[in-house]
Amino acid sequence: MKFQSVVFIDLDATIIRGPFESAVFPVLFVELAQKSGLAVKEIRRWVIQENLDRQQDANCPAIRAMDWDDIFDTVAARLGVKLEAKAVDIASSHAGPPYAVVLDHADQVLNQLASPHRAIVAATKGLRKYQLPVLDALGLTPLFTDILTPDVSNALKRDPAFYGQWPASTRLQISVGDHYEDDVAPPRRFGFKVVWKVDPPDEGWGKLEQPFTRPANWGYLAGQTVRPDAIVFGLHELPQVVARLEEQAFSA
C-alpha cells in the first residue's frame, strides 16, 4: 500500500477563489441580459436554478450537471437567444490573479501536508476544463497526488463513486471542505473523517477554541444533523488536525 491516508480537499472557497464570480458569470450574465431584455439578477436566478436542478436530478449525468457552457446554452435557448461567449474560454483566459487567487495560504498548507504516507487529492465538483487551467496558473497542480472531478468519475461528490478507488486503497480517508452538503454530510456517511472549514464567528468563541471541540458547540442550521470530526477556522489549523486524525486511526 503506497499511501496510508488520503486527504480529499475541496477547491472553490476552500483553497481557491476561481474566476467564475469575478469574470465568467459577469460576462455571460450581461450578454444574456442584453440579448433577452431581462435583468442580470433574473438571468442569474435562471442559470443557478438550472445548475441546482441538474444536481438534484438523479437521471442527469454528473458531467452535464456541472457543464456551465451547456447550462448557459440551455438557458439561452429557453430565452430564444444564442450566446457567443463561452465559459471555458473566459475561465481559461482569466485563470490567474486577480480573477483567480489562492486562499488562506493554501499553497503553504499543502506543502506542510505533503508526506510519503499521505495522498493529497483535490476533490472538486468543477469540470477539469474549468479547474485545471486555474490550478496550473496558481501553481497548485504539482501539490496534488490526484485531481478528482465529475468528468473523471461521472459522479458528483455526494456519490461514493466520485472518490474512485482511493477509499479501498488507503486506511484512512479525510474530507476537507466548506460546503456542508458536499464536503460534510456525504463523506461522513461513506465512513470518512470530516473537517469542515467555516468562517469564525464574530464573537462568542467560548467553547469554540479548539477544532475538535467546535463540532459539539457549533450553531448548526436546521437539517444539519451530521457532525464533522473537526471544524477549522483557517487552513493553518489543518496540518495539526490531519496529524491527530491519523494518530487516532493508526494507533487504534
Describe this structure in words.
- With 252 residues, the protein is of the alpha/beta class.
- It folds into 2 domains: 5-18 and 100-251, HAD superfamily/HAD-like (Rossmann fold); 20-93.
- The protein is 44% helix and 13% strand.
- The chain has 12 helices and 8 strands.
- The protein has helices at residues 20-36, 40-56, 62-65, 68-78, 87-93, 106-113, 128-137, 150-153, 166-169, 180-189, 214-217, 238-251; strands at 5-9, 16-17, 101-102, 118-123, 146-148, 172-177, 193-197, 230-232.
- Strands 5-4-1-6-7-8 form a 6-stranded parallel β-sheet, with helices on both faces. A two-stranded antiparallel sheet has the order 2-3.
- Helix 10 (180-189) links the parallel strand 6 and strand 7 (193-197).
- The two termini are 19 Å apart.
What can be said about this structure in brief?
The chain is α/β, with parallel strands linked by helices. It has twelve helices and eight strands.
In the CATH scheme, what's the topology name of the largest domain? Answer: Rossmann fold
Q: For the residues shown, what is the average pLDDT? A: 96
> So, the CATH homologous superfamily of the largest domain?
HAD superfamily/HAD-like
Quaternary: single chain
- Give the tally of β-strands: 8
Order of the strands making up the biggest sheet: 5-4-1-6-7-8
| Overall outline | globular
Largest sheet: 6 strands, parallel
- The tally of helices reads 12
User: How much helical structure, as a percent, in the residues?
Assistant: 40-55%
Rg measurement, Å? 19 Å
